[in-house]
Amino acid sequence: MDDKSGDVLTIEELAAYLKIPKSTLYKLVREGKIPSQKIGRHWRFRKGAIDHWLEETRAIVPGSGEER
């Protein structure tokens, strides 16, 4: 897979990319916490939007002021 920001990922590809179970990914989608689009019965994700989302949602270690 290229690193182009226009790449579109399936739920299986995104779960592998994020290294999380598909069930966790479905939960994030249901809760509207991850950028996604439903096309028919299938969920699709733009890799560029996911990378941006990851940067925006970085966890901060409490009390240290440092990113984790």
Question: How would you portray this structure in words?
Answer:
The protein has helices at 11-18, 22-30, 47-56, and strands spanning 8-9, 37-39, 42-46. With 68 residues, the protein is α+β, with helices and mostly antiparallel strands. The protein has one domain (8-56): Arc Repressor Mutant, subunit A. The chain has a three-stranded antiparallel beta sheet. It is globular. The mean pLDDT is 86.
Describe the structure concisely for a colleague.
This protein has 68 residues and is α+β, with helices and mostly antiparallel strands.
Mean pLDDT value: 86
Total domain count: 1
The number of E-state strands comes to: 3
Low-pLDDT windows of residues: none
- The CATH topology is Arc Repressor Mutant, subunit A
Report helical residue fraction.
25-40%
* Shape, principal axes of CA atoms: globular
Oligomer: single chain
Strand content: 5-15%
Q: State the end-to-end distance.
A: 27 Å
- What is the SS-derived class? alpha+beta
Question: Which strand order does the major sheet show?
Answer: 1-3-2
CATH class: Mainly Alpha
| Series of secondary-structure elements, N-terminal to C-terminal | EHHEEH
Q: How many individual helices?
A: 3
Let me know the largest β-sheet: 3 strands, antiparallel
Task: Indicate the radius of gyration in whole angstroms.
Answer: 13 Å
